[in-house]
Write a structure and sequence with these properties.
Helix content: 25-40%
Distance between the termini: 33 Å
Strand order of the largest sheet: 5-4-8-2-1-11-13-12
Shape: globular
CATH topology of the largest domain: Immunoglobulin-like
Strand content: 25-35%
Largest sheet: 8 strands, mixed
CATH superfamily of the largest domain: tricorn interacting facor f3 domain
Radius of gyration: 25 Å
CATH architecture of the largest domain: Sandwich
Structural class: alpha+beta
Number of domains: 3
Number of strands: 27
């Protein structure tokens, strides 16, 4: 997801987010229940007992009434014996009929008072048995006030007054418009979506287009996606045209590419579409095969800024020309096909695996395109945003808002601090081990090829174990300080005559034997910091530069001073506006 607001792009983000705010604001709507507001947390035992085999979702959208009429046919297999199913669905979407294995269930056998849909099965399932649940429901879905920073439907229109509709539900979860398991580990194995819209409109979706059926003045798009992330299933409706092409992958397969854009935006869309092949080349060269090559690389123009909807990434960045020579938003959202959709965090507490890696892909892409200048420029931009208010990883199961809300969790640090930590790790273990560690994290194996891997879940612990194995070292101390402490390590230096003393000051005095490069005169020294301390010869008056190649993520007083000044300027501006 894109919640990061880089300084150089703050105005763009504000304008893009506000561009259709008037359309997105409902006059009145009921408040979401606490259950529906939450996404993730400890997974209930009832949900752990089943595998989500298949979701068949039928949506008919009443644009004039801004309402939804839907049917969901959901298939599950029992991992262990169970006598109930527990799903998530916004209770404001009223259920009118519910059946199990094609037999209507009495109303007293199911309930959904707060958004947790509990279904008593007519017959208990033994391990390995299957069950199919049909749910007919509908109503006015929750409207996002400021997508994608909060979730829901976006009811907008084009400049010539035609409907333009999108969904973005990462924060509050999939239960805002379909009955699901609203947890990172709740992904169905297969999803078929059927979206019925007026013939003047199109409905691009996740996965591959299976069929397009005509019904008088409407038509129905049937899309099929394998192993989609729950919040990455989306609805998109508008007067779209589509650009299509094929990418010949270095792995021997051919990847379909699609760009769904608003009529009248063809020139800009073609310019953006031209970036697709080099982005694919970068990721396949640097990380590995595009995970959904048998489906598509897809992008759809949306009335909100963006979101990593699997194989149909939302894009509302306005087609700018960027200072780094590429569209940073598209590149970030596309990175989530690897970090989010192929490798999915097992818990929201592991969300830095999506956002930290996803953010580091922009400096890496700048380096791939134009060398070190954009790479370090983007890292410097990230460095000025690190807050260090909360640890990136809490070490316990979390709700989405516990992570993304900067008042209660790490917020943007899962992006920028995660990215900068990966830069430091890369410098410490070297490119070969670093990029191999990413491949194993993403694919679960060192030799990914199209057809020999499927999407999977991963944890912070999984990645640490991979790095330890590949580096041949125990680097738990590295991750312990950067991920589990709020404050950054501080390198203290003291010059006594011809001797320079270095000392790592670390929260809770944790071990941190991070080597430090020091330039003394025209010589570059690599200083071991066993025990967190070292002394080196440095003649008085000699030029001394600590970390001259900017490898280390550490506390820097001038950054803190700049951040404080920026905060004061913002406060003055806010007072002046009142």
């Amino acid at each position: 997801m894109l919640r990061l607001r880089p300084l150089t792009l703050a105005l763009c983000l504000a304008l893009c987010a506000a561009a259709h705010a008037e359309d997105a604001q409902p006059s009145t709507q009921p408040a979401l229940t606490e259950q529906t507001l939450h996404s993730g947390g400890p997974m209930p035992a009832e949900q752990q007992r089943v595998n989500f085999d298949h979701a068949e979702l039928h949506f008919t959208v009443d644009i004039a009434q801004q309402s939804l009429d839907a049917d969901a046919r959901l298939s599950f297999s029992a991992r262990e014996a169970t006598d109930s199913l527990l799903l998530d669905l916004d209770p404001h979407l009223a259920v009118s009929k519910l059946s199990v294995n094609d037999k209507t269930l009495a109303n007293d056998k199911w309930s959904n008072p707060d958004g947790r849909l509990r279904i008593a099965l007519p017959k208990a399932l033994a391990k390995g048995e299957k069950v199919v649940v049909d749910i007919r429901y509908g109503g006015k879905p929750h409207v996002a006030k400021k997508a994608p920073w909060d979730g829901g439907f976006v009811w907008s229109h084009t400049d010539d007054g035609q409907p333009w509709i999108a969904t973005a539900v990462e924060g509050e979860g999939c239960d805002l418009f379909w009955p699901c398991i609203d947890h990172p580990q709740g992904k169905p194995d297969l999803v078929d979506t059927y979206v019925t819209v007026p013939k003047a409109l199109a409905a691009p979706g996740n996965g591959v287009l299976v069929d397009l059926k005509e019904h008088g003045d409407t038509h129905t798009y049937h899309w099929r996606a394998k192993h989609p992330t729950t919040y990455a299933i989306s609805l998109n409706i508008g007067p779209f045209e589509v650009l299509k092409g094929d990418y010949r992958s270095r792995y021997g397969n051919t990847i379909p590419m699609q760009m769904w854009y608003l009529r009248g935006h063809e020139a800009q869309a073609r310019q953006l579409f031209a970036e697709f092949p080099r982005m694919l080349d970068f990721f396949e060269r640097q990380i590995g095969p595009y995970p959904f090559g048998d489906e598509k690389m897809g992008v759809v123009e949306t009335p909100h800024l963006g979101m990593e909807h699997q194989t149909i990434n939302s894009y509302g960045n306005g087609y700018p020309r960027g200072e780094y020579g590429f569209d940073w938003l598209l590149q970030h959202e596309f990175s989530h096909e690897w970090f989010g959709n192929q490798m999915t965090n097992a818990d929201w507490d592991d969300m830095w695996l999506h956002e930290g890696f996803g953010t580091y892909m922009q400096p890496l892409y700048g380096q791939y395109l134009y060398g070190d200048m954009p790479y370090f420029s983007m890292l410097q931009n990230e460095r000025s945003q690190v807050k260090n208010a909360y640890p990136i990883v809490a070490g316990r199961s979390q709700f989405e808002e516990d992570v993304y809300d900067a008042k209660r969790g790490p917020g943007n640090d899962i992006y920028v601090k995660g990215s900068l930590m990966l830069h430091t790790l890369r410098q410490m273990i070297g490119d070969e081990a670093f990029f191999e560690s990413i491949r194993r994290l993403v694919y679960g194996r060192p030799d990914p090829k199209p057809g020999n891997f499927t999407p999977h879940y991963a944890t912070t612990h999984d990645y640490i174990e991979i790095v330890n194995q590949l580096s041949g070292r125990d680097l738990n101390w590295f991750f312990d300080v950067y991920l589990r402490e709020a404050a950054l390590p501080k390198l203290e230096t003291r010059q006594d005559g011809n001797t320079l003393t270095l000392h790592w000051q670390v929260p809770h005095d944790k071990p941190f034997p991070m080597p430090v490069e020091v330039q003394v005169g025209d010589k570059l020294l690599t200083v071991p910091m066993n025990g967190g301390n070292a002394t080196i010869a440095a003649p008085a008056g000699a030029l001394v530069i600590i970390d001259p190649r900017s490898k280390l993520l550490r506390e820097l007083p001038h950054v803190a001073e700049y951040q404080q000044w920026r905060k004061e300027q913002a406060e003055k501006k806010a007072k002046g506006a009142k």
